[in-house]
Amino acid sequence: MEFQAQQQQPASVMVGQQFCAPYQIELTVQRKRLTFTGGDFTVTDSNKNIVLKVGGKMMSFHDRRLLQDAAGNPLLTMKQKTLTMHCRWEAFRGDSSNDKNFAFTAKKSSVFQLKTALDVFMAGNKDEKVSDFHVKGSYFDRSCTIYQGGRILAEMRRKYTVKNVLLGKDTFAVIVQPGVDYAFVIALIIILDEINKEGTQQD
């Protein structure tokens, strides 16, 4: 699967203009591993303010995640598409899975991978011949990089602390470039995490 050549224009708004900062930002993503829904996330800024939350939808299977803003307003519903070879996930605007609210889809670039790579196609990209975004991840390093063409939009690295290990939490630092929709970035990271977890369960 090829992806678009490097673009000089900033990435478009994907979730909301309020999530696009004119400067580089660093976010901290923290996951509680011991939860009923299989791992809830909080996303904080450099001042430790919660900016986003992610959780499993109650009374549903674990293959469904809901991205919310700090106030709990639903932004994106992400769910796994069943019976696909490439571990495809779909995202819908708000608390919905209605086709009219379809935002984007992400799937593994190939069936067999040593390191997880995802191709991301926005709603208007019907033929899916060229991906709009590309994600390269390493499950063992707990890291990933998100690209638009050859341009890096965001990078994630794991943060190791004794406190997090004792409390059963995974913590990650995410660097987001200026003008990039960080809610969209977090959504892709969550999907990558879900696909990685599925891969380890199958091994």
UniProtKB/TrEMBL annotation:
InterPro entries: LOR, LOR_sf, Tubby-like_C
Coiled coil: none
Domain of life: Eukaryota
UniProt family annotation: Belongs to the LOR family.
Alphabetical list of PANTHER family matching this protein: OS07G0230700 PROTEIN, PTHR31087
Protein name: Uncharacterized protein
Protein source organism: Taxus chinensis (Chinese yew)
